[in-house]
Amino acid sequence: MDISDAVRTLSVLFLGWEEGDCRAALDATGDGTVGVPDAVATLAYLFTGGKPPAAPWPACGSSDGDPLPCSRTCE
């Protein structure tokens, strides 16, 4: 995880980028939606010691009950 993850979330929301094959990975807050708070949570984790992102992080491919789809398996 790095700053590009927050940039991707914001780009999906505001620039119309494709979500990719693991939308759940964009849901850093684990609330079942993708929004600005997810990018903020990612940045807080990276730079201010905020809490770790919700599942499927760090194991993409396992959504652990998140209502957003995650079909990708990461290595």
Describe this entry's structure for a reader:
With 75 residues, the chain is mainly α. The protein has one domain (1-75). The chain is 35% helix and 0% strand. It has helices at residues 3-15, 36-48. It starts with a helix and ends in a 27-residue tail after the last helix. 23% of the residues are buried.
Features:
mainly alpha; 0% strand
List the helices and strands and how they pair.
Blueprint: H1 3-15, H2 36-48
Our count of domains comes out at 1
Residues in helices, as a percent range: 25-40%
Q: Helical region count?
A: 2
Structural class, please? mainly alpha
Quote the distance from N terminus to C terminus. Answer: 14 Å
Radius of gyration: 11 Å
Give the strand content: under 5%
**Which word captures the global form?**
globular
Biggest sheet features: none
Number of strands: 0
List low-pLDDT spans. none
Write down the overall mean pLDDT.
81
Element-by-element helix/strand order: HH
Question: How is this structure best summarized?
Answer:
With 75 residues, this protein is mainly α.
